[in-house]
Task: structure prediction
Amino acid sequence: MVDATIEQRPMTEEADFLKIKNWDYIHWWVGNAKQSMFYWWKGFGFKPVAYSGLETGNRDLLQLCAGKRQNSLCGQQCLQSE
Result:
């Protein structure tokens, strides 16, 4: 029998390699921007705030942004393959 012990180290400032204090927006390249927007809206409480797509004259990309307070999530998908 093997006795496996997991080393428990406290989270210190040196261990936090990313050190994010605040963020304004995150931009995602997704396969289905409308489905991603729905997930962020219903799952996390973000509200739709911006849209760019065929109706706005953008023939190459579809972009949807959702916001909550001062933070935004933007999902972008290609409409045409190369």
Summary: Strands lie at 25-29, 47-52, 61-68, 71-78. The chain has one helix and four strands. Residues 33-44 form the longest helix (12 residues). The helical segments are 33-44.
